[in-house]
Amino acid sequence: MWQKRPSSVSDNDQSTMLSQQPLNASGFSSQTQNPPQTLEDAFSRLSVSASSFNHSPFDFVADSPHGMDDPSKMISCSGWGRGVPSSRSSNLSHPTFTVNYDRFLDSIPLARQRGKPTFGGDFSVVPLSNGMQQKTPVAGFLNDFLCCNGLNNVDLSIDQMRLRWFNDLRRRVLLLATDQHECRTLQETMKTLTREEFSIIFLELINYVSYLIVHPSGNHVVQKMVEICSEEQQTLIVLSVTKCNFQLVRICLSSHGARAVEKLLQHVTTQEQRDRLLLALSPGAAILAKDVNGNRVLLHCLKQFSAEDNEHILNVVAIKCFEISTDQTGCVVMQQCIKDASGETKMKLIAAVISYASLLAEDCFGNYVVQHVLSLKVPGVAVHLLRQLEGRFFYLACNKYGSNVVEKFFQDSDEPISSFIILELLYNPNVAMLLVDPYGNYVIKSALSASKGHVRNALERLIKLNSLTMQSNLYGKKLLAWFNKGRI
User: Fold this and answer.
1) d(C-alpha 484, C-alpha 469), whole Å
2) For the chain, what is the mean pLDDT?
3) Cα–Cα distance between 262 and 294 in angstroms, integer?
4) Quick one: which of 177, 237, 319, 342 could link to 307 by a disulfide (CB 3.0–4.6 Å)?
5) DSSP-assigned letters across all residues of 409-450
6) How far is CA 385 from CA 350, 390, 391, 410, in A?
7) Sign for the pseudo-dihedral over CA of 446, 448, 452, 454
C-alpha cells in the first residue's frame, strides 16, 4: 500500500540533503525558500553574466571591415541560436537564451536609418569585442548589400534587410558613384538589382550624367549603366548628353568622357539615338580630330558606323581639311576618314586634299595626307595632283617634307607621270644641285629606279658629268657609290 508522504523533514534529513547539493546551487536553494509570486519575477531575478558568452552582442559586425560576417559562418536559423555566428554558438550554453530580433536588426549599421549624407563623408561607429570602437565609412554598406543576396540559409527577414539596405543605397548613390573605391562596388551592386530597383537608381543618377561622365570615378558608373539599361533609359542618357550645343564635344575632350562616350556609341540600339549623337559631334569634328582624346571618338564612329551615318562628320572634315591635315593628331584622323569614306563623300575629301596639295606637300604633317591620297591609286587623282604641283617639283625635291611627296609619285604613279616629273627636274638650270642636296639626292635615286629609256639615260649622263663634284660631297658620294654599284 501507498504510504502517506511525511509533511515535514527532520533536521538530520534536511542537513543530509543540503550537503549533497552542488556548490553553485546555493543561490537557487535560497530562492526556493522564498518562491516568487510570478514567473516574470523569476526571470527578472535571473542574471546572465557576459563572461559566460565571451563576446558582445555586437561582435558579429566587427568580424569584417564593413559589417556582417561571412555568410558561410552563419548557422541555421531554426532553434534558439538563429542569426548567431556558428563559431560562437558553443558559448551560448543557457537553454533559455533568446535573440531580440528587433535589436538584432537595429544593431546592424547597414540597416539603421541614417539622415541624408553630406559630401564631406559619413562614418558609423562599430563596437568591437575588445572594447575598442571602429569607424566604418557609410559607403561600405555596399559590400554587405552584395553579401545579403547570398544569405539564403538564414531564416531572417531577408526581404526586410534588403529593403532597408536598398533604401540606404538610394540616398547615397551619387556619393558612392563619385568615390574612388566604392564606385567599383556600386557597379557590382547594380548588376544584382532587379529591373525595378535599377530604374529607381537610374532616375537618381540621370540628372547628373553630364557631371558623372567626365568624373574620374563616375564615368565608370555611367559605362555600367549604359551596359545594363533598357532602350528607353538609353535614350534618356543620349538626350542628357546632347541637350546643349557643343555639350557632347566638350565631354569628348575629357579623357574620362571620351571613354564613356565610346561605350555609349557601342550600345546605341536605335537609329534615332545614333543620328542624335553623330549630329551633336559633327559641329566640333575639327576640334575633336585634333584633340588627343576627341580623335578616339571620331575614329570609333568611323569604325562603328557606316559611311552614310558618318556623312555629316565627314563633310565637316572635308571643309576643315587643311586645318586638320596640318595637325599631328589630325593628319592621322584625316587619312582614316579618306580610307573609310565611300562614294561622293570620299571624293569630297580627296578633292579637298588636292586643292591644298601645294601647301600640304611641304608641311611636316600634311605631306603624309598627300602621300596617302597617292597610295590609294584612285583613277585620275595622280593627274589632278600633278597639275596642282606642276612647276614646284624642283622646290619640293629640295624640301625635307616635299621630297617625300615627289618620291611617292615615282613609287605609286604610272610611268608617264613619273617621266613628266623627271623631265621637269632635268630642264631646271640648277638640277645638278639635287645630286649633292641632303634631300634631293634621294629624289634622284628614286627617279633612277622608276625611269626607263631615254629618261633614264638623261639621268645617267647628269651623274657622269657631275661625278667629280659629287666625290667631294657627303651626299653626292653616297649617291655615286649606289649608282656605280647598280651598274656592276
Assistant:
1) 15
2) 76
3) 10
4) 342
5) HHHHS-HHHHHHHHHHHHTSTTGGGGGGSTTHHHHHHHHHHH
6) 10, 8, 12, 13
7) positive
Dihedral of CA 159/160/164/165: which sign? negative
* Secondary structure (3-state) at 15: helix
DSSP letter at 108? S
Interior/surface letters 401-423, b for 16+ CB within 10 angstroms, e for the rest: bbbbbbbbbbebbeeebbbbbbe
Question: How far is CA 228 from its chain centroid?
Answer: 15
Q: What pTM did the predictor assign?
A: 0.67
Nearest-5° angle of CA 441, CA 445, CA 451? Answer: 135
Total number of residues shown for the chain: 488
Three cell numbers, residue 45: 531575478
Q: Which residue's entry shows cell 617634307?
A: 401
Facing residues of 123 across strands?
137
Q: Do the beta carbons of residue 314 and residue 349 sit within 8 Å?
A: yes
Closest to 186 measured CA to CA, from 158, 225, 214 = 225
Tracing cell 563619385 back to the chain, one arrives at: 178
Residue in the structure block whose three cell numbers are 531564416? 155
Q: What letter does residue 140 receive in the DSSP assignment?
A: G
C-alpha cell belonging to residue 135: 569607424
Query: pLDDT grade, residue 160 (50/70/90)?
Result: low
